């Protein structure tokens, strides 16, 4: 049970990553690799501030803000200097590796003796709930339960704020920018500014995920961002399969649900003896399959009508 | 109202694909006039509209809107004064957004977009009334994604969006060319209505000689990046589609003469 709660908690934390990836990849159709650097950046800034005696709230907000700066840098490289979006992200991500090392001063910062959002939530939970809580008949330690509740509440709040934001004038213009940039310029929107603000928001969320994960697991590591874009994409794809993409609210909920399901799958696979070293390989293969399967299925379908024999052969192969 | 002073634009200069799209075009368009632009393929009609809209910057010359020099203004900044409808019915709307969200974007064309609700109560009921007048049954489907509509419906909505806030200048770029005849008629009728009702200064490119003869109070004919004919007032009103076709024939013959003359000169001297 403790394992399950842990997996769902990490799933909630990383749903911020999924929301960030959803924002750049799906809303702006912008393959933003900056995420790998900004995820670590959020963790690095927050961990460094915590170690230097700042409170968890201030440190986490600072991590979020640092991520926004990284994202707006990528946006500026792309929109002002006309650098290809993928390359702009790679440039910032690469630069961030050095920046992160400088911020941290070493490659790993342990947070075991510092107050973090997790310790704050635990002490609040212990006061309110006592040592053990019963969830659906299971006894769960109040520490795990209170951290879980805290994280879930935070993510629901962030999701609701995002949903509201995307229904404002500014947010609607942003969604339209990714949809049809010719139209949005003709309606007087500076689409470069929209992309820059959108990437700032996206990377802010991703850095926030890094900041919370570092506090939850009790350390920040300069390598922790590697593979994060693909993890986020996997969550987004799972979410789209779960609830569809037609409506904004569904898409946001889907990204969160996808992230949780993805972490659960990972936890189960590891439990069954999957080598943790293979995790990123398997995730990449999963995303690859999820990307090509819809196209493959669509190509097979018309064959079914015209050439049933060939279709049967293909199905066997 | 709109003035272009010796504007020129060459695409791909210095390459085999060099195209001189605009060659020193001088044009002054009065407030409230409805100008129809026709011309051969590649004559620069659409380029002229795009130059005014700010899709690209000029090689030389200047563009003035209501006395302001907007030559260096980016596209999105000029949009404050300009409403546009494109040839491709998919270009003017955002497919994954609903009809009402698209209209809400248009209702703030060129204005600040802050953190206020995009869809207010009042705006919604206003939309229902205006969309009902299209007679397309869309007023009860305002929350549907625009991508689910036909080209004709999308083009009618694009026209509505371009004119939601009365533009100082309306640019119509062959906006019925990609539609079936019935939808084209409908969109043209809507265009006429709104232009007459709001007395919009309009620049409309068309391929249809029927439209060119029947609409507008001024007609400009372009060829190879230049304005070769400019009909005003009574002269414009007398024009029939056959007259315009005859002008095109003249242009074609002149072109052939150019080519055969060049060929002859080459034979004699080279």
- Strand sequence of the main sheet of chain B, in spatial order? 6-7-8-3-9-10
Q: What's the overall geometry of chain A? A: globular
Number of strands of chain A: 4
How many β-strand stretches of chain B? 10
The share of residues in helices of chain B is 25-40%
Low-confidence stretches of chain A: 304-317
How many helices of chain B? Answer: 9
Distance between the termini of chain B: 50 Å
Write the CATH homologous superfamily of chain B: P-loop containing nucleotide triphosphate hydrolases
The top-level CATH class of the largest domain in chain A is Mainly Alpha
Largest interface: A-B, 23 and 37 residues
Helix percentage of chain A = over 70%
| The CATH topology of chain B | Rossmann fold
Mean pLDDT, all residues of chain A: 89
Q: What is the total domain count of chain A?
A: 2
Largest sheet of chain B: 6 strands, mixed
Task: Write a brief structural summary.
The complex is a heterodimer of chains A (317) and B (270). Chain A is built from 13 helices and four strands. Helices cover 78% and strands 4% of the residues of chain A.
Write a concise keyword list for the protein shown above.
heterodimer, A: mainly alpha, ABC transporter involved in vitamin B12 uptake, BtuC, 2 domains, two-stranded antiparallel ribbon, 4% strand, disordered C terminus, B: 270 residues, 23% strand
Can you lay out the helices and strands and say which pair or pack?
The complex is a heterodimer of chains A (317) and B (270).
Chain A: H1 2-27, H2 34-51, H3 56-81, H4 85-104, E1 108-110, H5 117-129, E2 132-135, E3 138-141, H6 142-165, H7 169-179, H8 181-186, H9 191-217, E4 219-221, H10 228-243, H11 248-271, H12 279-306, H13 308-316
Antiparallel strand pairs in A: 1-4, 2-3
Chain B: E1 2-11, E2 19-29, E3 34-39, H1 45-53, E4 60-65, E5 68-69, H2 75-78, E6 82-85, H3 99-106, H4 121-132, H5 151-162, E7 169-173, H6 181-198, E8 202-205, H7 209-214, E9 218-223, E10 226-232, H8 233-238, H9 241-269
Parallel strand pairs in B: 3-8, 3-9, 6-7, 7-8
Antiparallel strand pairs in B: 1-2, 1-4, 4-5, 9-10
């Amino acid at each position: 049970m403790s394992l399950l709660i842990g997996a769902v908690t990490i799933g909630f934390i990383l749903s911020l990553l999924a929301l960030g990836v959803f924002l750049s990849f799906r809303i702006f159709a912008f393959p933003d690799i900056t995420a790998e650097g900004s995820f670590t950046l959020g963790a690095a800034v927050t961990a460094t501030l915590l170690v230097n005696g700042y409170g968890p709230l201030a440190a986490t907000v600072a991590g979020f803000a640092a991520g926004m700066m990284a994202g707006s840098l990528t946006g500026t490289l792309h929109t002002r200097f006309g650098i290809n979006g993928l390359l702009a992200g790679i440039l910032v991500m690469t630069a961030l590796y050095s920046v992160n090392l400088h911020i941290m001063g070493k490659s790993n910062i342990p947070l075991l003796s510092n107050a973090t959002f997790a310790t704050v939530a635990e002490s609040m939970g212990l006061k309110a709930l006592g040592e053990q809580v019963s969830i659906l008949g299971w006894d769960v330690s109040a520490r795990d339960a209170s951290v879980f509740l805290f994280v879930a509440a935070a993510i629901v709040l962030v999701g609701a704020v995002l949903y509201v934001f995307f229904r404002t004038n500014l947010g609607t213009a942003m969604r339209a920018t990714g949809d049809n940039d010719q139209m949005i310029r003709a309606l007087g929107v500076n689409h470069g500014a929209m992309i820059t603000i959108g990437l700032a928001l996206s990377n802010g969320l991703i850095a926030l995920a890094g900041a919370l994960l570092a506090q939850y697991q009790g350390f920040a590591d300069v390598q922790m961002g590697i593979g994060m874009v693909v993890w986020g994409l996997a969550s987004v794809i799972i979410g789209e399969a779960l609830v569809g993409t037609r409506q904004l609210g569904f898409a946001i909920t889907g990204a969160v649900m996808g992230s949780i399901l993805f972490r659960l799958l990972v936890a189960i696979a590891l439990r069954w003896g999957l080598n943790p070293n293979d995790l990123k390989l398997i995730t990449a293969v999963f995303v690859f399959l999820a990307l090509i399967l819809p196209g493959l299925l669509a190509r097979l379908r018309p064959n079914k009508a015209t050439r049933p024999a060939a279709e049967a052969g293909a199905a066997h192969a | 109202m709109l003035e272009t002073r010796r504007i020129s634009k060459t695409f791909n200069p210095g390459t085999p694909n060099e195209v001189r799209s605009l060659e020193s075009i001088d044009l002054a368009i009065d407030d409230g006039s409805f100008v129809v632009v026709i011309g051969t393929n590649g004559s620069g009609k659409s380029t002229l509209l795009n130059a005014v809209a700010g899709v690209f910057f000029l090689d030389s010359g200047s563009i003035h809107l209501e006395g302001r020099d907007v030559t260096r203004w980016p596209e999105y900044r000029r949009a404050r004064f300009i409403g546009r409808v494109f040839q491709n019915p998919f270009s003017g709307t955002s497919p994954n957004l609903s009809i009402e969200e698209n209209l809400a974007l248009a209702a703030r064309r060129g204005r600040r977009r802050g953190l206020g609700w995009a869809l207010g109560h009042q705006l919604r009921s206003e939309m229902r009334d205006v969309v009902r007048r299209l007679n397309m049954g869309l007023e009860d489907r305002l929350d549907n994604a625009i991508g689910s509509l036909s080209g004709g419906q999308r083009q009618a909505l694009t026209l509505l969006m371009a004119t939601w806030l009365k533009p100082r200048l309306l640019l119509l770029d062959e906006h019925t060319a990609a539609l079936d005849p019935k939808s084209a008629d409908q969109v043209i009728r809507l265009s006429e209505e709104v232009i007459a009702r709001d007395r919009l200064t309009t620049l409309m490119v068309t391929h249809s000689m029927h439209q060119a003869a029947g609409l507008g109070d001024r007609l400009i004919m372009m060829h190879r990046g230049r304005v070769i004919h400019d009909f005003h007032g009574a002269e414009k009103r007398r024009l029939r589609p056959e007259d315009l076709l005859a002008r095109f024939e003249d242009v074609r013959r002149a072109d052939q003469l150019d080519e055969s003359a060049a060929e002859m000169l080459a034979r004699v001297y080279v």
